[in-house]
Design brief:
single chain, mainly alpha, globular
């Protein structure tokens, strides 16, 4: 327990250092141009806002589609679950794991079996990641072919291709018993904890994931629908970034946009600051400046997008979580107010008759 305050203090210090060293230098000279830049074409700000709201809606539809019809809660309840998980992920470092755990617990509270809830979030996360890196790979390659590859795009293309390949192989391995057995043997060969990890993973898979995986692979249309909603989620998020940049007067090409969006997405995986806060902005801005955009316009555009995509879901998620908790309490009070069930047969009289 003593290590928790130390870890929190270290994470806050890392956030402060990242903002001071990476973000603040990009904002020098921006204050005087703020009014002029926002007056360039502020009609793009509603576009960015609507695109981000559409991105959140697409994410909730992906969750709804991934759940089997027999255990699927009502759509407003799924919205509360996903918005709460996203908000928590934006508040703590390594928030993806915390948000997934919260989503699992809230789905179970809504009557979804634990195994189905775990598989839904796992499969949705995997499908979302594969879709994201596939879109990034396509955008980076297309932008490089049109306008030429830059030093920023080459490592991102390599990383995206590696991740897409690894995730595709993981999907194949999950479906095939022979591949799972080979993976189990490989994990068991690891020193010290290999056997324990293999035993726990195998028991968890057999108890909670085997049946949902088998059912999901029998419905390829549902998986394709989840991939489609995931693609809509990331595409609308990228559109919000592009519209925010246009609102501040920055004109960015496809390659620079893909590079910046890829940096932002990769930054969310670093368990240093919440969703890469500070780190992503400090790398996105120079990457787009290298593409020929104005430093002031890019800096304000990126910060505008982060205000919409990062900060806006936090109050929405807090409201959704409060709504979920109030609904649970109302249902509990209604159950407590119901009269106790009486047996359909008078047991003492029935016993006398039987005697």
């Amino acid at each position: 327990m003593r290590s928790r305050p130390i870890r929190t203090a270290a994470q806050l210090a890392a956030l402060a250092v990242a903002v001071w060293l990476l973000v603040v230098p990009q904002l020098r000279g921006s204050a005087g141009s703020l009014r002029q830049l926002l007056d360039v074409d502020n009609s793009w700000l509603p576009v960015a806002l609507c695109a981000e709201l559409g991105s959140l809606a697409a994410y909730t539809f992906a969750t709804r589609t991934m759940l089997a019809r027999s255990v699927r809660p009502a759509y407003p309840k799924i919205v509360c679950v996903d918005l709460s998980a996203i908000a928590l992920g934006h508040c703590v470092p390594d928030g993806g794991a915390a948000g997934t755990a919260l989503a699992w617990r809230m789905l179970v509270d809504e009557g979804v079996p634990g195994g189905d809830a775990a598989f839904t979030k796992f499969a949705q996360g995997l499908a979302s990641a594969v879709t994201l890196y596939t879109l990034l790979l396509g955008g980076l390659v297309a932008g490089g072919v049109v306008s030429g590859f830059t030093p920023w795009s080459v490592p991102l293309i390599s990383l995206a291709a590696t991740l897409v390949t690894a995730m595709f192989l993981a999907c194949v391995a999950i479906r095939r018993p022979g591949a799972r057995r080979r993976l189990d043997r490989g994990v068991r060969r690891l020193p010290w904890l290999g056997a324990a990890v293999a035993d726990r993973a195998g028991s968890f898979y057999g108890a909670h994931l085997e049946a949902p995986v088998r059912n999901a692979t029998r419905e390829p249309r549902r998986l394709l629908s989840v991939a489609g909603w995931s693609a809509a989620n990331w595409s609308l998020d990228a559109l919000a970034l592009w519209a925010s940049l246009r609102a501040c007067g920055a004109h960015v090409g496809l390659e620079a946009l893909a590079v910046a969006f890829g940096i932002a997405c990769f930054g969310t995986w670093l368990p240093i600051t919440p969703s890469g806060l500070g780190l992503s902005e400090g790398l996105m801005i120079p990457a787009m400046i290298a593409g020929g955009s104005s430093r002031v316009a890019v800096a304000l555009g990126v910060l505008t997008w982060r205000a919409i995509a990062y900060w806006m879901p936090i109050p929405l998620g807090a409201t959704a979580y409060a709504t979920h908790q109030i609904g649970r309490r109302v249902r509990r009070r209604r159950l407590e107010a119901l009269p106790p069930l009486r047996p359909a047969i008078d047991l003492p009289a029935f016993a006398d008759i039987a005697a």
